[in-house]
Amino acid sequence: MSKEKYTYLIKQKAQELGFMYCGISKADFLEEEAPRLERWLNQNMHGQMHYMENHFDKRLDPRLLVDGAKSVVSLLLNYYPEKENQQQEEDTYKISKYAYGTDYHFVIKDKLKTLLAYINEEIGEVGGRCFVDSAPVLDKAWAKKSGLGWVGKNSNLITPQVGSFYFIAELIINLELEYDGPIKDYCGSCTRCLDACPTGAITEPYVVDGSKCISYFTIELKDQLPQEMNGKFGNWVFGCDICQDVCPWNRFSKPHQEPAFAPHPDLKHLKTSDWQELTHEVFSQLFRKSAVKRTGYNGLLRNILFVQDSPEKD
Predict the structure, then answer these.
(1) 57, 67, 91, 133: which is the annotated catalytic residue?
(2) Which residues bind [4Fe-4S] cluster 2 (predicted)?
(3) How confident is the model over 175-214, as pLDDT tens digits?
(4) Whole-prediction pTM
(5) Smallest Cα–Cα separation from 218: which of 202, 194, 235, 204?
C-alpha cells in the first residue's frame, strides 16, 4: 500500500469515529514555537502551572516522545452543545461548555485507541502513542501545521466554517504519510476577544497570559483567588468561554453528535441559589464523570463564594 492509501484509510476511519477533522504533519522539531514557548515561560505567563516548565524539549520534538516518529495525526472533536442544552444566561453560575458532559479525556482516548488498533489491523504493525491534552504535546501548533485551522488572537485554534468549540488530540506514529499544509490566518483586524476579556489575559494579539485567565483561576490555581480579580469573573465558576463566545467565527458552530458530551439534565436548570447551596452529594451526581471534578467540590465552592461576594453582584 502507498502513503496516499494509508492516509486515506486513517482519515476515513477518523471520520467514522466521529472526529470532525483530521490533518497530518511531519513529526519534526517545532522551530517556530521554541522561542515563543521560552518567552512565555520566562515571563511567568504559566502562573502556578509548573508542569508547563517540564519536558521543554519533548514539547517541541515528537520524536522524543515516540521512537522513530514520522507523523503527527491531529484530530478535532466537536463539543458545541445544542441551544436547548446550554446554560441560561441569567440567574446562574456558568461552567465552560467543554465540561458539560463526560470528561473528554476518557471519550477521546477510547476513540484514539480504536484508531490506532485499526491502523495496526489494516496497515500492519505501527508503533505510536495517543495524546489527549495530558502530555507535553503542543496540540494547537500541530493542528495548525496540519491545516486544521489557524491560531487566533485569543490563542485558540480556529477553523473556517466550524469555529473553535472542539477538542484537539493526536496520534504520533512511526509511519510516513501524506502531509497537509497550514492555512491562512483569517482574524484580520478583529479584536473582539481582546476587548471582551474581563481580566486582560489577552495581553496583545496572539499572546495570552495564562496566569490572568479566568480558566486558570477557577481550575488551575489551588490557592486563594486574588482580591484584585474580585468582580471580574462575571458568573463564571469553572472555566470561561468569553473569548470564544464573542469570536465571529463561532457563529458557524454546529451542535456535536457525541452522546457522552450531553450534560446532566439538571445542569441547565440550576439557579444561583442552587449553586450556593450545592452539597457534596449533588456535586457528585451532577459532575460524576465531568471535567469539573478536576477542581473538586471545595474548589468549586471557593469559586462560587468568590463570584457571589463580588462587588458587581451587590
Answers:
(1) 133
(2) 197, 213, 240, 243
(3) 999 999 999 999 999 999 999 999 999 999 999 999 999 9
(4) 0.95
(5) 235
Alpha-carbon distance of 137 to 145, in angstroms, equals 13
Q: How far apart are CA 105 and CA 291, in angstroms?
A: 9
What whole-number distance in Å separates Cα of residue 151 and Cα of residue 53? 22
CATH fold group of domain 3-87+97-173: NADH Oxidase (3.40.109)
Which grid cell is 216?
A: 486558570
Q: Is 61 a catalytic residue?
A: no
Q: Residues annotated as binding site for [4Fe-4S] cluster?
A: 187, 190, 193, 197, 213, 240, 243, 247
**Residue ranges at the known binding site:** 59, 133, 154, 157, 168, 187, 190, 193, 197, 213, 215, 222, 240-241, 243, 247
Give the residue numbers of the binding site for tRNA. Answer: 222
Q: pLDDT tens digit string along 255-285?
A: 999 999 999 999 989 999 999 999 999 999 9
Quote the CA–CA distance of 279 and 307 in Å, as a whole number: 18
Confidence of residue 312 (pLDDT cuts 50, 70, 90): low
Total residues found in the chain within this entry: 314
Amino acid at 278: L
Domain ranges of the chain: 3-87+97-173, 192-313
Q: Which of 5, 20, 1 is nearest to 165 (CA)?
A: 20
Helix, strand, coil fractions of the chain, as percent rounded to 5: 40, 15, 45
Coil, strand, or helix at residue 133?
A: coil
Report DSSP state, residue 211.
G
Give the whole-angstrom CA distance, residue 252 versus residue 242.
16
State the cell numbers at 40. Answer: 512565555
Cell digits of residue 262: 450531553
Alpha-carbon dihedral sign for residues 12, 33, 184, 197: positive
